[in-house]
Specification:
alpha/beta, Oxidized Rhodanese, domain 1, 2 domains, 5-stranded parallel beta sheet, 29% helix, 14% strand, Sulfurtransferase, TST/MPST-like, repeat, Rhodanese-like_dom
Length: 284
Amino acid sequence: MTDWLIETGELAALIDNPETAGTVVLDCSWYLPEAGKHAKDDFVRGHIPHAQFIDLAEISDPASPYVNMLPEAELFASVVGRLGIGNDTDVVIYDTGYVSCRLWWMFRTFGHDRVRILNGGFRKWKAEDRPVETGEAATPAARTFHAETVAGRVATIDDVRGAVARQDTTIVDARTAARFDGLEGSGYPGVASGYMPGAINTPWALFFDASRNFEFVSTERAKAIFAEAGADLSGNVITTCGSGVTACILGFMIERLGKDDWRMYDGSWHEWGQQPNTPKLVKS
């Protein structure tokens, strides 16, 4: 698959067609723990008809000291299988913010390429006054999902240390400028502020167009954003952020530009910032 987006009109036609039962729609909306609320409650109040809810916390490594880390393949397979997804299932992902690209990356990292993201997400769906369903989702028939981790998609902390030392990799960081510069806290207790030497800040919000109901920007605009920041995408590329979520937005846009060999630093700043021997720079 080369076009990873699906438009609202196309999805509306899809869910109204009984012959498209092979598609599962997933709402992966999520809040940072500090928000003190859970996106599942929002889902119950309103969601795209026939959608299922998937919790980022449930598909993250429960044993890791770092947040939102990629789980074992068996855990991911178990959760998505319970949601009615098999290896022949087409998956459409949406959210109310910035998490869809993380789930897109996870599916593909576990070998499932039959996945698309709803352009504009639930915000655009509601802005167009499309139908909304309330209450809990119907329980689907469980499917068997075989997940195998695809090599070369995840960068470890040692990979990033090496890239920083060799200066042979473009590291793009999706955090806000204030977080990246160290002018405000990291957002996690006990995690230092700052950025990695050589990293380039390309804040994730730049890749959404608020004037168009939060659609992704065009590939032409994405290319310009990276170029304006001085990010050379022609060689090795690693994306990073605060906890491995918004870094996937950068990767999603990089892949839409035709480059599929980028890697995502799963531990991101939540891991890097807690290590005593990792270099951390702060702009004055």
